[in-house]
Amino acid sequence: MGSKPRTVSLRFPLGVLSHDGAVAYLGDETPDVVALQSGSGRVLWRSAVAGRPIAASTQQVVVARLTAGLELELAALSASDGALCSTVTIDAPFPAWADITLKPDEFFDYRCALEDSELDLQWHAQQRYQGGAPPGPQVMSKTSHCAAGMLHINLTSGRCVAEPREATLRCADASPLPNVAPSAREVCVHGERVFYLLDRGDKAGQTVLCAARRDTGAPIWEFAVRSWVASRPRALRP
User: Fold this and answer.
1) 52 domain residue, yes or no
2) Residue 144 within a domain
3) Are 157 and 195 in a shared domain?
4) Beta strands 118-127; 10-12: pairing state
5) Which of 12, 74, 67, 24 is nearest to 49 (CA)?
6) Of 131, 164, 197, which residue is a domain's last?
7) Do residues 153 and 90 share a domain?
8) Is the pLDDT assigned to residue 232 strictly greater than 50?
9) β-sheet with 145-154: strand ranges across
10) Three-state DSSP class for residue 189
């Protein structure tokens, strides 16, 4: 298992792209998983499964959630209509010191590849000294860690095989771009288009997924991920 090369899923804000780049699957900050046409932003389907899409093939999309006990819950959805195909829960063998998150950052990053019911998850975790004063060698050795590995997961049986790997992953898919707002997050570049999230603090109060031209920053489409005004506490009366 995991012996032949597989196509790594393309990262996208809140999720992943299909291999041909035509469809984006996003979740995490949405109440459900949504499939969008990446060229127009048109919604293709929604699924009631909650979590972050981490891998996609022509047949399936894998959605992941982390439990409080750091178990990895995986749901395989049909790429055509979002129907639930299978679910498995695994006790992922990540280091106890690692700050595990499904939103990749400088401390935990991962890439996934999916073929049929076989999911490969390559990960990289690091922990650095975050104190104020420059640390001595002993402090550095106790507070700095780095580890990497590969998980081969069968989405039907739940069988998980772990193997060590060298740390080869990058922590970001795109460098800062001059035509993207500084407040943009989860910026991803694919071809001539750039995709990113914006948290708008105006009266509308929305998190918006934006697609724009890479060269000029001209908007192509927007999709309202969520409205957060309704979730704010009401102002106290004087």
Assistant:
1) yes
2) yes
3) no
4) unpaired
5) 74
6) 164
7) yes
8) no
9) 108-115, 118-127, 145-154, 160-164
10) strand
Task: State whether 155 and 188 are in the same domain.
Answer: no
| pLDDT tier, 171 (very low <50, low <70, confident <90, very high otherwise) | very low
CA dihedral 210, 25, 20, 43 (to 10 degrees): -70
Per the structure, the complete domain to which residue 98 belongs is given by 10-164
pLDDT of residue 202: 62
pTM given for the model: 0.81
**Would you state the pLDDT for residue 227?**
62
Q: Kindly provide the residue ranges of all beta strands, DSSP E only, lying in 57-134, ordered along the sequence.
A: 60-66, 72-78, 84-90, 108-115, 118-127
Residue 143, H or E segment: helix 137-143
- The sign of the torsion formed by the CA atoms of 8, 10, 13, 15 equals negative
Does the pLDDT of residue 235 top 60, yes or no?
no
Number of structural domains found in the chain: 2
- Residue 165 CA to residue 163 CA, distance in Å, equals 7
Is there a single domain that holds both residue 185 and residue 158?
no
